[in-house]
Amino acid sequence: MKEIKIKTKDLTLYYGSKMALNSISVEIPQNQVTALIGPSGCGKSTFLRTLNRMNDLIPNVRITGEVLVDNFNIYDKNVDSVNLRKKVGMVFQKSNPFAKSIFENVAYGPRINGVNDKKKLTEIVETSLQRAAIWDEVKDRMHDSALGLSGGQQQRLCIARTMAVDPEIILMDEPASALDPISTSKIEELIFNLKENYTIIIVTHNMQQAARVSDHTAFFYMGELVEFGKTKKIFTVPVKKQTEDYITGRFG
Amino acid sequence: MNSENNNGIPGQEEQKPGTELTGQPAETTEVNTSKFVFSNESLKKQMRPSEFFAEKIITGVAFLSIAVIILIFLFVFRETLPIFSGKAAKKTELSTAKQETYGEAAAESSSGKQEVYGATDDTVVTTESQAGDSLPSYSGNESVTADQVTLKSLAGKTWMPVSENPRYGLLPLIIGTLKITLISILFAAPLAILAALFSAAFAPRWMREIIKPAIELLAGFPSVVIGFFALMVMATFFQHLFGYETRLNAFVGGVAMALAAIPIIFTVTEDVMTAVPSTYKEASLALGASKWQTAFFVTLPAAAPGIFAAVLLGIGRIFGETMIVLMATGNAAMMSLNPFESVRTLSATIGAEMAEVVFGDTHYNVLFLIGTLLFVFTFALNAIAEFYVKGKLMTRLQGKTS
Amino acid sequence: MKKVQKITGGIMMGTTALSVIIIIAIIIIMLVVIIIGGKDQLSWKFLTSFPEEGMTKGGIFPAIFGTALMVLIMSVAAVPLGAITAIYLTEYAKDRSWIAISVRFAVRTLAMVPSIIFGLFGLGFFIKFVGGGMDQAFFGGHLTWAQPNILWASLTMALLTLPVVIVSVEESIRTVPRELREASLALGATKWQTIRKIVLPGSRSGILTGTILAVSRGAGEVAPILFTGAAYYLATLPRGLSDQFMSLGYHVYIMSTQSVNVDQTLPIQFATTLVLLMLTFSLNLVAVIIRSRLRKSH
Question: Which of A14, A244, C75, C296 is deepest in the core (most CB within 10 A)?
Answer without folding.
Answer: C75
